[in-house]
Design brief:
mainly alpha; Arc Repressor Mutant, subunit A; 2 domains; about 70% helix; globular
Length: about 140
Amino acid sequence: MSRATEDSNRRVLRARDAMDRAYAQPLDVPALARIAHVSEAHFSRTFRATFGESPHRYLQRRRVERAMFLLRATDRSVTDICFEVGFGSLGTFSRTFSAIVGTSPSRYRRETAASVVPTCFTMAWARPSDPARPPGED
């Protein structure tokens, strides 16, 4: 890897780390390009080439991932969670959440709340079985 490529990757990683830390803040491509010390067009191209998605889509996905956690772990309203993770409107949040997760935030909360299982059980149930040994011979 050339030094120029390494430097470019480091700059894009710096901006992605800022997105991970400040996902709830109003971040846009010009602000992220300033963090990476490159032009907006170069930043967008390099980010997409490096991570396989646009900076905007990455930020939306990070926000939705955080919202998923809050929907599972708290009883706060969907509207509160929407604004806490950085969305400006409930409609945009619901549409984006549904596009990424495949279900609405309210339905996601209902379905995951009903299936809360201790981690030790989940690990035991999800443990791969050995096809050479019959079930029950541990």
